[in-house]
Amino acid sequence: MTVEVNASGVVFLMINKDRPGIVGYIGTLMGEHGVNIANMSLSRDIKGGHALTVLNLDSVPPDTLLDAVRKDPDISHVRVVTL
Predict the structure, then answer these.
(1) Residues 9, 83: contact at Cβ < 8 Å?
(2) Which of 31, 32, 38, 43 is placed for a possible disulfide with 56 were both Cys, Cβ 3.0 to 4.6 Å?
(3) Residue range 37-72, pLDDT digits in tens
(4) CATH domain 10-82 topology
């Protein structure tokens, strides 16, 4: 998969199943936890396969948000990196 990444600040990365609603789900969780998305990049291997989601955030997400994301069985490899 190829994805453009703004390699600065707070970067949220995850691998997820390519399914309808995942972008809205992540956006809603971020909003509920007061985390603003500055930039979003998405890429997938094949339709219905796996996708790479990269978000640049205005702040480090709280552990409660990360725990909620990790509970979704269609999401794996959740990482936050501060550059």
Answers:
(1) yes
(2) 38
(3) 999 999 999 999 999 999 999 999 999 999 999 999
(4) Alpha-Beta Plaits (3.30.70)
